Every structure is written in structure tokens, then in C-alpha cells.
């Protein structure tokens, strides 16, 4: 059976990355590719690396163009997904890369976003553990609608959740500093992303709890801990096109030794094809996961400070967005989870 998939926002970074992955997917045929201001433009003029799609013309983003496909990927700016989703037929599988359906607490949504709260869809991070057993994968099998995580929450949540679920780290006083490549901000030019401002320099932003991924991270870690998790999150911008390196630290539960800490992460990820706990002593590196649907993680106990340090690396456009979207589609449709996904990186 051939699955037809449309991509709304195919002119953007996330949409084009979904197209790259679907070109290698053995069960999917790419249907409509849509844009906003770029409607009418040749795909090849915007994404020359996607040669098989070069002569496709981007169509307007409306329900009429998107209907008639088995799957619709939405890679639109925040706040635009709900209006489109409610116009699509009930039997269409919708995978939303925006934030619109990620949060379940309406107050969190209104504190960080300026559009009305639209609701909550199953969260497209299959490997994320929950307190008391189970993973988010359980909610994705057969789902009609999926909400793909933000790129930082993927790395941060996967780095910390095993220790919270196993009760080896405290849910209070978690500190996260993460660096992202500039593609995380999307394709449209932004003053802080102009070449001369970003080349050869790093800078923090959204400092002081203001970044909109803070409530998403806090929710994920609270679900893993089974208790309210308090998180200080500071994102930074790094002079590279792709990649996230998230450095997270949390207080170790008194009396827990290094072997017990490591065992928590080993048991959470032993059978996960897309999350690799690296051998002891080896640290994650964004270069090793570029273009892949992998997250590399390492964890250690700093006995002098009484803190566990867990570090994760991912490609923000692949496992951080488009790869998670395709992985979620596979689960939703009952396909093997990693079908069509790149499981090796591009290095150096
Ligand atoms: N970049 C990343 O690492 C990640 C992105 N995401 C999410 O994916 C979504 C897309 O992000 P990204 O690709 O980076 O952003 P881009 O800015 O690169 O692309 C945005 C896309 O949305 C289209 N668009 C813009 N305005 C409208 C509108 N008013 N109505 C309909 N379509 C519109 C654009 O079309 P046109 O080109 O014609 O303007 C383009 O196709 C966002 O919700 C983002 O948060 C999620 C995780 C990570
Ligand atoms: C470098 C950079 O600017 N990154 C983006 C995050 C991109 C992403 O994953 O987030 P959403 O899907 O929630 O937009 C930012 O900090 O806003």
C-alpha cells in the first residue's frame, strides 16, 4: 500500500527536512508541497538538495490542497496548525511540527504563546519514559494526530527523564544550558542571525525562564518524575547550521552511587533504536548525529558537587523535528518505527 503525504510549509527548514526523509521512505509517496509567500515558486529554487522534487511548484497552504492525502505534515509557524487541522477530514493522519498541541496546561500556553489554546495531541517523543513505567510510544501507536516536540525539549527531556523515572535524581533544582545551531530559528532572516552577528560567536537568549520551551521541558520532566519538576533553562545560539548540545544537571538522590545512576539510563535506552547511551568516557558531539534520527547521551555523577550531569546531542532538524515527525507517522500507521529514517550520521 502506498501512503500519500502532503507537507504544509515545505519551503521552510522543517518542511524541507521532512521532504528529504520522505524521499527515502519506502512506503510514502510525496503529494502536495505548500508554502505561504513562496507559493508558486519551484521547490528546486529553495531546496536544490532535494533534486527529485526540483520541478514541483509550491502550492498555497489551504485545506483543499492538503485534503485527499493519507498523512498531512504541518510545518507552519506556531498558531497556524489548529485552523488547518479542523478543516481536514477525520480520516487524515496529521503530524504537527509546531507547538500548537504540545502543552496540556492552558495557563502554560497563555503564559508563553499569544494565540488561543488549541488543545493537546499525543506527544511525538516515543522514547520518553513516564513515572511508574511506560513510554510516550504507547500513546502514538494508532494515533490520528501527533504533536512533534520542540527541538530543545527533545534533547533535554531524553537526557534527564531516565534518572527522574528511576528516582536517582531530584526533580527540584534542575539546571539546563543548551546550544543550538541557527536553523532552529527557521528560514526567515532574523536580526540576531545575520552572518556577521552569528559567525565565530555564541550568545544566550530567552534567559530567566522566558523561553517558550521551558514549560514543555518542565511538563515532560514532571511526567517522568511523577512530581513537579523545577527547571532553569538557558538556550544559547551557536555558530553552526544544525545541531543541539544540551548540558543538564540535577541533584543526585543522597546515597545513590555512580553505578546505580548509570543503570537507570542503561535500562531506559537499552532497546531504543534512536537513542544511544554512549560508552563510559565518551561524550556527545553534534557532529556525530548530523542528518540522523539519533540522540547521543552520556551521564556521569559528579560526587564533589552531588550532581548528575547528563548531556545529549541531536540534529535539531532531524530527530529534533522532521525525524521525530516521520517516526511518529510510522507508529501512528503501524509501520516499523524506524522505516525510512537515517540511522547513521554524517561526519566529520
Ligand atoms: N527549525 C527547527 O529546528 C524546528 C522547527 N520546529 C517547528 O516547525 C515549524 C516550522 O519551522 P521552520 O521550518 O523552522 O520555519 P521556517 O520559517 O523555515 O518555515 C516556515 C514555513 O511556514 C510557512 N509560513 C509562513 N507564514 C505562514 C502563514 N501565515 N501561513 C501558512 N504558512 C506560513 C513558510 O512559507 P513561506 O516560505 O512561503 O513563507 C514556510 O514554509 C515551526 O512551528 C517550528 O516551531 C520544530 C522543531 C524544530
Ligand atoms: C536557535 C533557535 O532560535 N531555536 C528556536 C527553537 C526551535 C524549535 O524547536 O522550536 P519550536 O518548534 O518550538 O519553534 C528558538 O529558540 O526559538
From TrEMBL:
Pfam families: Semialdhyde_dh, Semialdhyde_dhC_1. The keyword Ion transport does not apply. GO terms for molecular function: N-acetyl-gamma-glutamyl-phosphate reductase activity; NAD binding; NADP+ binding. InterPro entries: AGPR (IPR050085), AGPR_AS (IPR023013), AGPR_dimerisation_dom (IPR058924), AGPR_type-1 (IPR000706), NAD(P)-bd_dom_sf (IPR036291), Semialdehyde_DH_NAD-bd (IPR000534). Keywords: Amino-acid biosynthesis, Arginine biosynthesis, Cytoplasm, NADP, Oxidoreductase. It is an enzyme of class 1 (oxidoreductase). Pathway: Amino-acid biosynthesis; L-arginine biosynthesis; N(2)-acetyl-L-ornithine from L-glutamate: step 3/4. Residues 4-136 form the Semialdehyde dehydrogenase NAD-binding domain. It comes from the Bacteria. Its EC number is 1.2.1.38. Catalyzes the NADPH-dependent reduction of N-acetyl-5-glutamyl phosphate to yield N-acetyl-L-glutamate 5-semialdehyde. PANTHER family: N-ACETYL-GAMMA-GLUTAMYL-PHOSPHATE REDUCTASE, CHLOROPLASTIC-RELATED, N-ACETYL-GAMMA-GLUTAMYL-PHOSPHATE REDUCTASE, CHLOROPLASTIC-RELATED-RELATED. This is N-acetyl-gamma-glutamyl-phosphate reductase.
Amino acid at each position: 500500500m502506498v501512503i500519500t503525504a502532503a507537507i504544509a510549509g515545505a519551503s521552510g527548514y522543517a518542511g524541507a527536512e521532512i521532504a528529504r526523509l520522505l524521499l527515502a521512505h519506502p512506503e510514502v509517496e510525496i503529494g502536495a508541497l505548500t508554502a505561504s509567500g513562496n507559493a508558486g515558486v519551484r521547490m528546486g529554487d529553495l531546496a536544490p538538495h532535494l533534486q527529485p522534487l526540483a520541478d514541483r511548484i509550491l502550492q498555497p497552504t489551504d485545506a483543499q490542497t492538503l485534503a485527499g492525502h493519507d498523512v498531512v505534515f504541518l510545518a507552519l509557524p506556531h498558531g497556524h496548525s489548529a485552523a488547518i487541522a479542523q478543516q481536514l477530514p477525520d480520516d487524515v493522519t496529521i503530524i504537527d511540527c509546531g507547538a500548537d498541541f504540545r502543552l496540556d496546561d492552558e495557563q502554560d500556553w497563555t503564559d508563553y504563546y499569544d494565540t488561543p489554546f488549541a488543545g493537546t495531541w499525543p506527544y511525538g517523543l516515543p522514547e520518553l519514559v513516564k513515572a511508574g513505567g511506560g513510554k510516550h510510544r504507547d500513546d502514538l501507536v494508532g494515533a490520528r494526530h501527533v504533536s512533534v516536540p520542540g527541538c530543545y525539549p527533545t534533547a533535554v527531556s531524553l537526557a534527564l527523564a531516565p534518572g527522574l523515572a528511576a528516582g536517582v535524581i531530584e526533580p527540584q533544582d534542575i539546571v539546563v544550558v543548551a546550544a543550538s545551531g541557527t536553523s532552529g530559528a527557521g528560514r526567515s532572516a532574523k536580526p540576531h542571525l545575520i552572518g556577521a552577528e552569528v559567525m565565530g560567536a555564541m550568545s544566550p537568549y530567552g534567559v530567566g525562564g522566558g523561553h517558550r520551551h521551558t514549560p514543555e521541558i518542565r511538563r515532560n520532566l514532571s511526567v517522568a518524575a511523577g512530581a513537579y519538576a523545577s527547571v532553569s533553562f538557558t538556550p544559547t545560539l551557536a555558530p553552526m547550521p544544525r545541531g543541539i548540545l544540551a548540558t543538564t544537571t540535577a541533584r543526585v538522590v543522597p546515597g545513590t552511587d555512580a553505578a546505580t545512576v548509570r543503570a537507570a539510563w542503561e535500562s531506559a535506552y537499552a532497546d531504543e533504536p534512536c537513542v544511544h547511551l554512549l560508552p563510559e568516557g565518551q561524550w556527545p558531539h553534534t557532529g556525530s548525529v548530523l542528518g540522523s534520527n539519533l540522540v547521543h547521551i552520556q551521564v556521569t555523577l559528579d560526587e564533589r558537587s552531588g550532581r548528575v550531569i547528563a548531556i545529549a546531542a541531536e540534529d535539531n532538524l532531524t530527530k529534533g523535528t522532521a525525524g521525530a515527525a516521520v517516526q511518529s507517522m510510522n507508529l501512528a500507521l503501524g509501520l516499523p518505527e524506524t522505516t525510512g529514517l537515517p540511522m547513521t550520521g554524517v561526519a566529520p
